């Protein structure tokens, strides 16, 4: 029976580059979002009514910000082993281009289309749960 890997500093150092960067970036964005005066969550969240050419960066930044520490921790715990395996299989540059390209932008655009066109509401989206689902599905479909 396989055992769970123990998480420590050595384990963090052995993670691939982008996986390590992503875990640190999520933690930094969470800490930066603590003071409400900075408005990091409001700046990076995917808000349908605030999307324009000037704020198109929101299509790529919404997975990096989280609602609270529990949300960030659960996403990091779920994403880190999946992203590590994906990055080891496909390489760092491919992973970066996929995760800040079509695997983030296309679901964001689809969400905006459904939210504005069908539901006619303005719900805010934050968190990397979309990446958890995509990586788990990609690993399940193509690598196993």
Automatic annotation (TrEMBL):
Keyword Membrane: yes
One Pfam family in the UniProt entry: Rhomboid
Keywords from the UniProt entry: Membrane, Transmembrane, Transmembrane helix
Membrane spanning residue stretches: 20-40, 95-114
Record GO terms (molecular function): serine-type endopeptidase activity
Subcellular location(s) per record: Membrane
Main localization of the protein described in the UniProt heading: membrane
One cellular component (GO) term of this entry: membrane
Membrane topology: Multi-pass membrane protein
Annotated Peptidase S54 rhomboid domain residues: 56-129
Alphabetical list of InterPro entries matching this protein: Peptidase_S54_rhomboid_dom, Rhomboid-like_sf
Protein known as: Rhomboid protein 2
Lineage: Eukaryota, Fungi, Dikarya, Ascomycota, Pezizomycotina
């Amino acid at each position: 029976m396989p055992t769970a890997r123990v998480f420590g500093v050595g384990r963090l150092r052995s993670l691939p580059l982008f996986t390590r960067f992503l875990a640190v970036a999520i933690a930094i964005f969470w800490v930066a979002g603590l003071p409400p005066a900075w408005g990091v969550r409001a700046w990076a969240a995917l808000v349908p009514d605030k999307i324009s050419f000037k704020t198109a960066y929101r299509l790529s930044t919404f997975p990096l910000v989280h609602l609270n520490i529990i949300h960030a921790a659960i996403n990091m715990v779920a994403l880190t082993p999946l992203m590590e395996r994906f990055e080891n299989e496909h390489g760092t540059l491919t992973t970066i281009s996929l995760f800040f390209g079509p695997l983030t932008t296309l679901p964001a655009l689809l969400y905006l289309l459904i939210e504005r066109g069908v539901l006619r509401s303005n719900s805010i989206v934050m968190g990397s749960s979309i990446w958890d689902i995509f990586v788990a599905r990609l690993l399940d479909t193509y690598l196993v």
